[in-house]
Every structure is written in structure tokens, then in C-alpha cells.
Amino acid sequence: xxxxxVVPAPPSRPNVLFEYLLRxxxxxxxxxxxxxEWCGHGPILEEDIALANISLDLLGHxxxxxxxxxxxxxxxxxxxxxxYFREAVEFRNCQMVxxxxxxxxxxxxxxxxxxxxxxxxxxxxxxxxxxxxxAIATKALxxxxxxxxxxxxxxxxxxxxxxxxxxRTQRALDELWRFTxxxxxxxxxxxxxxxxxVAPDLPALRPAWESIVRDVADRATLTIPHAAPRAASxxxxxxxxHTEALGHMLAEMQIVARSHPGASW
Amino acid sequence: xxxxxxxxxxxxILDGVMDPEVPVLSVRELGIVRDVIVxxxxxxxxxxxxxxxxxxxxxxxxxxxxxxLTNGGxxxxxxxxxxxxxxxxxxxxxxxxxxxxxxxxxxxxxxESGALVQLVRERAAVECPWCGSRDTEVRSxxxxxxxxxxxxxxxxLQPFELFKSI
Lengths: 265, 166
Prior knowledge:
The structure holds two protein chains of two kinds. Chain A is built from ten helices and no strands.
């Protein structure tokens, strides 16, 4: 921890880092929950186990980010309070991760697009001036390497597989592409934290992400959609605007904790 | 008044605390215990780091540590979690690797370093912990616990687990 112990200047608005940590935590919480929906439904036993493992890793990453978010907020909310007792409009995940699981091709294409983002972002965050954030990113990156290898291999198998698997994977890529600008659109929070050395320059991460995605897509005989991706609107997941799917997902995810607040077992 | 525990006593007790998911190794051998601090007033703090971020065993491990110390006459030990330096399977010492092998778990390979990810990993064939053959196949990188992969040996036809390297 010696070289990472530089304390960043406190952001001018106290909730900026909290908001940023919610984005990191919520992306992984929501995607982790989506993956867990495959548990017991995987196409083969090994894949069922793999998806549950990746889900668990993402929940672990989410726990670390949300716990730190709660500490930064300083209102006594822990990771469980943040996960189970916020409404959909208070979630800060990108919209891509909340979309329903769809078929296996859709699940895996979304996973691959996110995993590529994950390793590029975590690699950058591991040199954050915020020591705890850097430590979380360094740890999560080790596990995220396993994730992209898994989803990347599946992209090759599905894209360059049968006519049916190719068609479904290409359809997933076409549907998901318009959700990718949100990953790299910086708003005032990103820019302020980037200036403080806490978070990376988000738009500058896109070329590294795109080179991973294009390399795999090419080898998988998949076509990146030609249409220029629409610019993310000012109302996106990062500001609490979500698709209908998130509310339904949260209703299921939060029901037990909300029905029995404070229960332990 | 409880006498002040020596740090060595604490460490000796922790040598007897086994990992619940890899019960042939202690929490010290796995590198989960990073430090033990005994302050002037005798308060004991055990610094731990999780192997995997989502490892469901970490809470059990913390409870087991506190319980073992209490049984050993050191009550009220506190647990502190740290994430830096990030846990790596490279910390597992040679003797512990042999214990893994004896339990039918192939020990971890060297952890990858560097930011770049090789999409298709080139790896030396894993040695079967049962028969020693290298005619083996990694069936899935993800196995029964967060820290293990699923393998199968073509020579002796036995399935086995491989401790993941991170």
C-alpha cells in the first residue's frame, strides 16, 4: 500500500465519489444478478457452474464498491442497505447490464462487451490516487481476466459456430451496440474525479475496449454494426433513468430483504 | 484479567484453523491471514484478505478464527479485512502445494501478470494429482468453488480439480 497512500484532494461536492462508487457497484450487482438467473438453467453443467461462479465474483466486486460507497457517504448504510433498500431510480448502473438475459447468445454477448469494459476500466482504476479504490480494482481485475477469457471463447464458438448460433449472436450484437456509448460517456462526476486522479478519463478508454471487441468479433466472423451508435442522452442509467426491466429485476432481488428487514440466518 | 497473548501463540492457534472449502490447508498456508497485531493492552487483531472477492467462505473463516482463538484462551479477537496487496495463489508455499496434490487437487500454476489478457491461454498441461500423467484436459475454468477449475485425466480417466491461479 506504500506507494498508493496519496490522499486525493476532497472533491468539492461530497457526494461525487459516492455517486461514482454506486456506478461501479451497481453495474456489477445488476449484471451479477442477471447471470445468477441462469443457475439451474445452463445449457450444460459446466456452463451452469461457470455462470454462477462469474455471478458470484461480480457480486463480490459489487460488495467491495458498495461497502466503500456506504463509508464515503457516512450515513450508516452498508452494502446490503444499498443493494436492497434503494428504488430503481436510485440505481446508477448502465442500462446494458439490466436488460433481461435473453437467450444464451444474448447473455454471452452482453457479458463479453461488459467483460472487455471491466478489464479496461479496472486496469485504469488500479492506479487511482484513491488507495482503497485502487486496491479494490487491483483485486477485481485478477478475477475479471477469467471472465473475459470465458466470454471471449464463447464468442468465438458461437459466432463461428453453426448458422443458428451465428445468427443469434449477431442479432445480440446488433441489439446491444446502441447501449455501449453509455459506458464511455463522461459526465460532470467522471470529469471531476478524473481531474482529481481518482477515476480515469472515460472516453479515452474506448479505443482499448473497441480493439478487444473488434479483434474477437473479426475472429468470430461477427460484424460490428455499421450504424454510428447513438450518443448517450443526458438521461441514462448513470443518472437513474432505466429501462422497464430494472424495476422487475429489483422487485425479485429485493423482496426477501424488504419483507423481513433485519432478518439473519 | 486475561494475560497478554504473545503474537506467536496467536499464530500457532491460526495454524490449526483450516479453510472450510480446502480443508487440507490452514488459513495461514493459504495466505488469508496477512498479519496479527497485539497492542499494548493485549487486544488482538487478525488481518485477513479474501482469496476471491465473492468467496462465500470468508465469513465462516472469520468466525472460525475468532472461535479458535477464544478456545485457545484469547477472547475478543478482532478481524480486519484488507484488499491490498491483492491475494495471489503464488503465496501458497511448496509444502502446502504437496498437501493439495495429496488431496487430489492440482496446485496452482504461476499467476499471470501484466494488464493484457490472452484470450486463449497457452498453458502447460496440468499434471494429474492422482496418476501424474500430463495427458489431461481443463474441462472448465470454473469449478465447485471460486478458487478451483474442473479437469479430467485421459490416462486414468479420473476427474480432478485444479487450484486456479490469480
